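Holo model, nicotinamide-adenine-dinucleotide. Inputs:
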Amino acid sequence: MSTEQIHVAGFAVSPHHYIHGERVASEVLFDLYCPIDQSLLGRISEGTAAHVDAAIRAALAAFPAWAALTAAERKPYLDRLAAEIGKRAEAFCQVESNDAGILLSRMKHGVVPRAMLNLSWFAEHALTLQDRPMETEQATHLVRHDPAGVVAIITPWNSPLMLATWKLGPALAAGNTVIVKPPEWAPLTSSLLADCAHAAGLPPGVFNIVQGSGAGTGAKLVSDPRLARISFTGSVPTAKWIARAAGANLVPCSLELGGKSPFIVLEDADLDNAAATGALMYRNAGQVCLAGTRFLVHHKVHDAFVAAMRGYVAQLKVGDPRDEATEVGPIIHPRQVERVQGFVQRAVDAGAEVLWGGAPHPFGAQYYAPTMLTHMQQSSEIVQNEVFGPVLTLQTFADDAEAIALANGTDYGLGGVVYGDTAHATAVAEQVRTGFIWVNSFGIRDLAAPFGGIKRSGVGREGGDWSFEFFCDVKDVVVPKKPFRASFSHR
Ligand code: NAD
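Output:
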């Protein structure tokens, strides 16, 4: 058991794994840097095959007793877990802002309250799960949602706390035991979650964390045949790797992936409103899977829309995410900064025009100016691929059919935004092939609603009952209404 801690913004965080209710240190450590200024935050334990094996054994051992509890008996554990997050709200905000570069204001007002709700909402919703009877003429079908077993949860760096709890809530509430593999570029708030689990009295082995790289620790975890489910949020290439590993063992996996979502501005749109929402796409320096990153604007309103959005973008405050006035923070890692620069350079070399931005931002080495590119072909790299940075593209269209064709003209299908007269925008939205789409709005979410993508943007849905369908084994217990007598002519 290791009691060693690192200190981030004055808050203590364990740099080690959490297995069977104990902190476990590795001999091999990796360096973790702050995305704001590349200062060293600490040295973090890297999980080996032995750590992955220990976590799976702990989760397997804890499963029967945890699964045997009713949802009502599990609920107080999840409510206490949520309460422990609340008690440490300031630590979660400061640590994730330093570790992942998420805006402090967003952590306080959005992420931490949502993380708590992810646990308490699913704990409550699980009460409705058991024995939803289905009556037919012949029988009563007791449709049970049984816990599946040990669940691996793999999260990305762009919203580590929110995404870990979004999966943990339903997985634990349904009676599974879990192993979280947090992102190696931002693992610290997952470690704080382990402190919360400990304080909330979760039985040892119900909640485990093994830290480390994707190719090392992550790959070992998802290749293990003892898993019952893999819930992954991240990039398409990683998802393909995980799907192959899971397929080898026939372990079901849920894949929430990237996007290249359209932001459509129809000729009857409220342009000022659309432009104000458009500037929001730079939030988290554009490192948001569901952002509308491809602007498709009716040619008649192009000039007015561009002028309005330019005005909003000019007002964005780029800076230190720990300053609550900041609206656009850093890019997570130097490698990601290079990637963003590469995309813009190649687009410009191929003939794209820069409407604004198009260069590093003077605030610091990890910053890139909010950018809008135009004059690209639909087939160009910048239109077809997810940049995951503060870089948007703008194309024009002449009618709805062209807007819909452009919107549907990529391999992605996560989300979308349509601005226009409500009936008109809704009709267009219905024809865009994505998992969700917002009409005259952006980012409205409800835990009961389905969330997920189609095409390369993912497999499966999270949220409400969809999360439980994934994390549970659905079983039909059939009880006949009349005495049953065996007969070969009976179907
Ligand atoms: P990534 O795929 O590189 O990594 C995600 C996680 O997978 C990390 O924890 C990583 O260590 C792990 N991983 C990598 N290789 C692995 C392997 N072989 N086996 C097991 N685990 C492995 O993604 P990222 O760069 O961290 O995140 C950005 C991506 O996530 C973007 O594409 C973004 O759109 C997507 N994303 C999607 C959603 C959504 O809900 N659809 C939400 C947030 C982010």
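The pocket of nicotinamide-adenine-dinucleotide is lined by residues 154-159, 181, 183-184, 213-215, 218-219, 222, 233-235, 238, 241-242, 256-259, 289, 386, 388, 414, 453, 458 (CB under 6 Å). The radius of gyration is 24 Å.
Archived with the compound record.
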